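Q: Got a minute? One more chain.
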Amino acid sequence: MRVLVLCGGESAERIVSHASGDAVATWIEAAGHTAIKYDPEKPGAFYHTNEPMAPPEIGLAAPLPRRHDGYDPTAVRGLLDAIDGVEPDVIFPILHGGRGEDGTLQALLEWTGVPYTGSGVLASSVAMNKLFSRTLFQSAGIPVA
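A: Always. Here it is, folded:
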């Protein structure tokens, strides 16, 4: 099975995401599958399991500057090109924060039709909106703090 591991991204947690991607890719390869790591913020740059993405010292880095309010079309096109080029059987997104967890990435992945791991669009969107999540839990009778 070919697994495209998405890690890195634009958030301050991108180094942690790279470390997570390194670990996940190692386990995927150990299970007998092929893992290809890809950072959507670096279109065209692929990393194989033996090429660590994270530096030895893991911490938080400054977030990458946003180029505009919307998603960078170069990054989106690069991700779509990566999916087309790699032809993965499944995508394993490990992008932390913001658009990696708020349903935006999940919506793009849904559009491609390639199966992916993790929560879908709605669950991701709701989980990132703490006020809406709280209201939803309360309406279901679940105690909240």
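A: Residues 2-119 form a domain with the Rossmann fold fold (CATH 3.40.50.20).
Q: Perfect, thanks.
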